[in-house]
## 1
Amino acid sequence: KELSDDLSSFFDSGIYRLPGRGIVFVDPVRLLNASYSHHRISASGYYSRTFNSLERRKDLEASDSSSSKKRKLKKRNTLELNKQEIVSEKRHQEARPVLLKAHEALLGTVELINFLPNLVKDEFSFNEVKGQNFVALGSLWQAPLYEISLCLDGSAILGEGLRHESIGKKIVPLFNNVICNNTSDDMDAEFLNCRYVLPRKSSFCMSDLREIHDLIPGCSDQGFNLIVIDPPWENGSAYQKAMYPTLPNRYFLYLPIKQLAHTNGALVVLWMTNRGKLRAFVDEELFPAWGVRDVRTSYWLKVKPDGSLLGDLDLFHHRPYEYLLLGYVNKKKAEPLLDDQVFISIPGAFSRKPPLGKLLADYVPGTKPWSCLELFARDLVDGWTAWGNEPLRFQDSSYFVKR
Ligand code: SAM
C-alpha cells in the first residue's frame, strides 16, 4: 500500500506533525540515527523496557488478586493534598486538556497508530548491555589515569571518495577532558575492552559537577546557542536511585548557565518532574540564578506501542507526562516561544528522554550551525557537546548495528 507523505517523511526524520498546534509524535531512534553514517541504533535495544514492562505487567495482571492494584490506582482525594500538591494538581488540571487533545490527535492518525507496534522492534535480538559503570570509575582515585583510544582509521573520510586506511589511534585521558570527533563520519573508540561509537561532529566531556567550569568557552562569542539540561533531581523513588546518583536541588544553582550561553543569547530547556515544590524552586531561585527569562511550558507525553497513554493521566504520582520549561538567557530581544507544545513518544529503556534539537530548531537564537550543549547527558548527538558523569553510557557498541 502506498505511504502517505507524512508517514514516509516520518520514516526518514522520526518526526510526525499531528493535526493541531505544536503537537508532534517522535521516534527517538530515527532522530538519533541521523547522527550516524555507518551505524544504526537498535530499536529493540532502545525500546527494551517497553517489552520488559509489558511482560511484567502481564505477569502482574495474571497473578493479581486485584486488591493491591485497586489501592495503587486509587486517585488521591483533593482533600488529602498538602499545599504544594494542590499547586501541582492545579497545574495538572491546566495541562490536562492540552494533553488530551494531543492524545486524540495521535489516536486519530490511523496510519501512524497502525505502525506504532513495529516502531519498537527490529530484526535483531537485543541482549542486556553490561557496559562500564562510568559513574563509579570516575569517582576512583585512579580516574585521571584512565585513557580512551580513539580509532582514526578506515572510516575517516578525507574528501571525495578518498579513504585513509589505519591512520592509527589517538590515546587521551577519558575523564575531565573534552573529547571531539571532528570528522564527518562515525568514529570508534575503545575503553577497557569495550567499543563505543562517536557520531560525527560530536564532543563530550565526562566529569563531575565540580569540574563543569572546564566547559566554559574561552572566547565570549563561542558560547552555546542551545542548552538542554536534564538534572538528576531527587524524587525519592527507589527505581530512580538504582539508575543514577541524584543531587540536592541547591547544587544546580551553581551550574554556570550564563557563562555557557552565547553572549548573543541561548535557548535553555529544562526537563522537570511534576512535583510542586520543585517548580517553585525553579521559578523562584534556579531560573533567576541562571538568568533564564521568558519561560514557557511544553510537555512530553508518553504512550505505549498501542498508542494508549503510559498510565492513567490522573494517577497522582505516576503521570504519563513530564514538563519541559523553555526560556532565554542573554537575550536582548525576546523571541516568541511557542507555548504548550506536546512531544509524544514511546519512552525508551532507562527513562531516556527524546532528543530535542530538531524539534526546537525554530526557537534557537543565532546563526547556523548552532553550537548545542546537553548537560547531564548519557548519549552523544551530531553537532552537540555532551557533558555529565556518563555521557558515553548509551554509545556502547552493543546499542548499535552496522549499516
Ligand atoms: N537526559 C538523560 C537521558 O535521556 O539519558 C538522562 C539524565 S539523568 C536524569 C541525570 C544524569 O546526571 C545521570 O546520568 C547521572 O549519572 C548524572 N549525574 C548525577 N550526579 C552527577 C554529578 N555530580 N556530576 C555529573 N553528572 C551527574
## 2
Amino acid sequence: PSRPRPKVILVIGGPGSGKGTQCLKIAERYGFQYVSVGELLRKKMIHNATSNRKWSLIAKIITNGELAPQETTITEIKQKIMKIPDANGIVIDGFPRDVGQALSFEDQICTPDLVVFLACTNHRLKERLQKRAEQQGRPDDNPKAIDRRLTNFKQNTIPLVKYFQERGLIVTLDADRDEEEVFCDISMTLDNKLF
Ligand code: UP5
Ligand code: MG
C-alpha cells in the first residue's frame, strides 16, 4: 500500500507576524519539511533577474511589496513540493495571499489539513519589520514596500480568512505575544487537530 500523503499546514499572517519564526519551530518539533514561498521567490528572482525578462519583472514586483503572479507562484510551490522525498508533513510559510491563490492551490495541489492565521496588530507588525530592516535589510524591507505589504495584507486577508473559516480549516491565534507563547498555542492546536 502507498504511504498516506504528508499533512499540509499553511501559515498565513501579515508581514512581520512571525510566519518564518513559527514555521521553523513547527518543522523542528514535528519533523515537517519547511517551505517558505517568499524565500522561494526571492531566491529565484535573485538568480534570474538579470538574464530573464519574466523574473526581472517579478523582482520589481516583489521589491515594491506587491504580489508575484499567481501561476508562477503555484508552479514554484508545486516544483518544490515534488522534490520533497518522503515527509510526515509540509509546513508552508506565507501562502496563500488571497482567495484566488487558495482556490488554485486546492485545484492544483491539495486541500490543506490546517491553516494557521497569526493575527497581529498593525503597530506590532510595523515595529518588528522596522527592527528587522535595521538588522538584515531584505530588499522589500524599505518603508514604501513595507506600506504596500501591509496594505495588500489588509485588503486580502479578511476574505481569505473567511473563506477558510467557512470550510472549517483555519485557526486564528494571537501573535502579538512572545515567540514562545505563540508557539505553545500552535503546538497545542496541531496536537489536537492533526494527530
Ligand atoms: N519576531 C517574530 N515573532 C516575534 C514575536 N512573537 N515577538 C517579537 N518579535 C518577533 O518575524 C519578523 C521579525 O519579528 C523578525 O525579526 C523576528 O525575529 C521578529 P518573521 O518570522 O520574519 O515574520 P514573517 O511573518 O515571516 O515576516 P515576513 O517579513 O517574512 O513576511 P512577509 O509576508 O512580508 O514576507 P514573505 O517572505 O512571506 O513574502 C515576501 C514577498 O514575497 C511578498 O510581499 C510578495 O511580494 C511575495 N510573495 C508572493 O508574491 N506570493 C506569495 O505567495 C508569497 C510571497
Ligand atoms: Mg518570512
